[in-house]
Amino acid sequence: MQKKSSTSEAKKNAKKNATAPSLIQPQQKKFQRFEGSTLFRHRLVLATLTHKSIEIDNIRLHGSADESGSDEKNEADKETRNKPGITDYELNFLRLLDRITNGSYIEINETATNVKYIPGTLTGCTKHIIHQCSLNRGVTYWLEPLLYLLPFSKEQTNVITLQGTTYHELDVSIDVIRGVLLPIIKRQFGMTDIRIQLTRRSLPPSGGGEVTITIPIVKQLRTIDMLDVGMIKRIRGLCYTIAMAPTLANRVRTECNNVLYNYISDVWIFNDSTKRHELQKHVPKLYKDKISAGYGLSLIAESTNGILLSVHAQHKTDADMTAEEFGQYVSKLLLQEISYGGTVDTTLQSIILIFMTLCTEDVSRVRLGRMTKHTVHILRLLKDMLGVTFKLKEDSETGTIFASCMGIGFSNVWRQAS
């Protein structure tokens, strides 16, 4: 009797595994249609995870940004404002998506204003992949989608190296990803073995930077409950200089300390310097003698409950601002971010909300300080593609917003099928 029951259970499991890919085949026959270039990456990522075919039409049809913005921060690159269709970095992202999937179908029309995408098997990295990113965006433009996709891929461990620009004003700082997002993913969502190694820092347009990420697969993501901010107990920071005098970092750090010491005494800002000759071997020939120089600052505040809040700013070469004024400016940005009262900082809101929808079938809760337009667009997209509706409730005392949702219980269907 025991043998019969065990064999029957094995047959049931075999049927489940065999039908897992077949259940999503009918979804490929119908295209879910979108218009405009808004949330281009996120549409493709969610289509890959849910295995839905999508069509994106009227991409910068008149050679300008959409009303909601051509990218995640409602801004458009000056170089692409007068060019219709997808940009070079969006095309580069499609190439990366094709490398980590098997059997995907991507069709772009002649004017590049229409893209059809039928996702294939999410295989992940069958070997160590080295991907050359476009120099018009930071490497986090490609890194962020990989954080959603690779944990649910077919390969046991995925290792990929992204080469290009590590900082860009339109993208999240790599230091914020490593110092804030990575601890949240590990502690809250249960992806404990993920690693991000920063080999070289660089600025646009010369590039030359390199980031290597190692992402093992997971069965499911844990739900989170991040409502209590706590009290800020320490502030840490990193001031980096690239192809510039390291003394600039000391000037920025001194002014930061003068401002932040009025708020808390436990403040420490580190310096990091990347020299010009370190990048000359890794930049395109066009920029061998024109290495992009600059400096920037990332600040992270940690609370007694383990909440991390961050800001990042990059000094603009055309800005009439001294190093001391820049340090004072970024310090005030951090204090402003803390005053919002959220448990997730403004730049990482959308990333956390997407992870919340993929969690197990239970309620995840988070406190948001100030909702951005990009976050609103993400919430609408999650409702359209995943059917997840967030419950938003404002706290009358603090002015913060409680955001909660029921996870869809997303699991690694490709690993089960294998």
Automatic annotation (TrEMBL):
GO terms for biological process: endonucleolytic cleavage of tricistronic rRNA transcript (SSU-rRNA, 5.8S rRNA, LSU-rRNA). Residues 33-391 form the RNA 3'-terminal phosphate cyclase domain. Residues 228-339 form the RNA 3'-terminal phosphate cyclase insert domain. The keyword Ligase does not apply. Signal peptide: none annotated. Keywords: Nucleus, Ribosome biogenesis. Residues 63-82 have a biased composition (Basic and acidic residues). GO terms for cellular component: nucleolus. Pfam families: RTC (PF01137), RTC_insert (PF05189). The keyword Nucleus applies. It is found in: Nucleus, Nucleolus. It comes from the Eukaryota. Belongs to the RNA 3'-terminal cyclase family. Type 2 subfamily. This is RNA 3'-terminal phosphate cyclase family protein. The lineage of its organism: Eukaryota, Sar, Rhizaria, Retaria, Foraminifera.
